[in-house]
Amino acid sequence: MEIGGLFTALLFGAIIGGLGRLVVPGRQHVSLLATILVGIVAALLGTAAATVLGVANTPGIDWIELALQVGLAGAGVTVLANRSRPKLPR
Predict the structure, then answer these.
(1) I need a surface site. Which of 49, 67, 69, 81 has the fewest CB within 10 A?
(2) For 13, which DSSP code?
């Protein structure tokens, strides 16, 4: 992988991860690094899902693929936020 591809993956992961955090209500106690990693994984899985569904290559902006990626990022952020949240005693 070239340095340009790595930088693009980090930037795109940060954008998708950030959008994923925006769709989840409330505050999430998830680090920036975890958000970027969730965004990168969500972008890859969303693209794979769009390919399987046959909507990966459409004319113009791939809105369905983007929605899949952001939805997966939101789910990933939610899982991480609930996993790292301290449990309160009853």
Answers:
(1) 67
(2) H
How is residue 85 annotated by DSSP? Answer: S
Q: Is 2 helix (H, G, I), strand (E, B) or coil?
A: coil
DSSP code string of 16-75: HHHHHHHHS-S-----HHHHHHHHHHHHHHHHHHHHHHT-SS-SS--HHHHHHHHHHHHH
Q: Is the dihedral of CA 62, 47, 17, 1 positive or negative?
A: negative
Radius of gyration, CA atoms only, the chain? 14
Distance (Å, rounded) from C-alpha 67 to C-alpha 65? Answer: 5
Quote the pTM value. Answer: 0.82
